[in-house]
Design goal:
The mean pLDDT is 88. The protein is mainly alpha-helical. It has one domain. The longest helix is centred in the last third of the chain and has 33 residues. Helix 2 packs across helix 6 and helix 4 runs antiparallel to helix 7. The radius of gyration is 17 Å and the shape is globular. It contains seven helices and no strands.
């Protein structure tokens, strides 16, 4: 059993490129023990900060609340994947492995989504072209969402060692539902 290592942002970017270009359980497993939940938080936090800067909508308070919200959502979701994966699907991974594995695709796709939003915003002032770019932006956003779901499915299999498709999907589904409920409770309190 190997110890989890610390890794740098440039290494994580290279690992992200590999898992996005070569998505498979084997590719994710190659990296799952190379980082910690702290590495994942830095990577996802950095992506959320970049996304916030590109959004330019809520000023400094919007940037900070977006960053905190993204990190809380990430921790809640990966924590639920870990908990449900262990409790319901008899997975054997660690929260470090889950968080790190998920960060490798969530961070870059967050930045891509923010860049897309910026492009749509830039062109929205031009009547016909803006509408076409907006429509294309919605289509690309859907593709990003589907890519996240696909990568999450593979990441659950890898990080929690759940190769049964039904158990992997159950783990993801319950984690998504639980995250939604927790976020609604937090929103209602605030």
């Amino acid at each position: 059993m190997s110890m989890i290592q610390q890794t740098s942002i440039p290494e994580m970017i290279a690992q992200s490129k590999d898992v996005i270009v070569n998505p498979s359980v084997v590719t994710f497993e190659r990296y799952e023990k190379r980082g910690t939940i702290i590495n994942a938080a830095m990577y996802v936090g950095g992506a959320a900060a970049i996304s916030g800067v590109l959004g330019l909508t809520g000023g400094m308070s919007g940037l900070l609340s977006g960053l905190i919200g993204a990190l809380i959502g990430f921790f809640v979701f990966t924590g639920l994947v870990f908990y449900v994966g262990r409790s319901v699907a008899n997975g054997t991974g660690t929260w470090d492995e889950v968080a790190y594995t998920f960060s490798l695709f969530i961070a870059p796709l967050t930045v891509v989504g923010a860049l897309l939003g910026l492009v749509v915003w830039i062109f929205h002032f031009i009547p016909l072209l803006g509408a076409l770019i907006g429509l294309l932006g919605m289509l690309v956003s859907l593709v990003i969402l589907l890519a996240q779901a696909y990568f999450a499915y593979i990441a659950v299999q890898s990080s929690m060692n759940i190769l049964d498709q039904g158990k992997a999907l159950t783990t993801l589904g319950l984690a998504v539902i639980g995250t939604f409920i927790i976020q609604m409770v937090i929103f209602a309190i605030l």
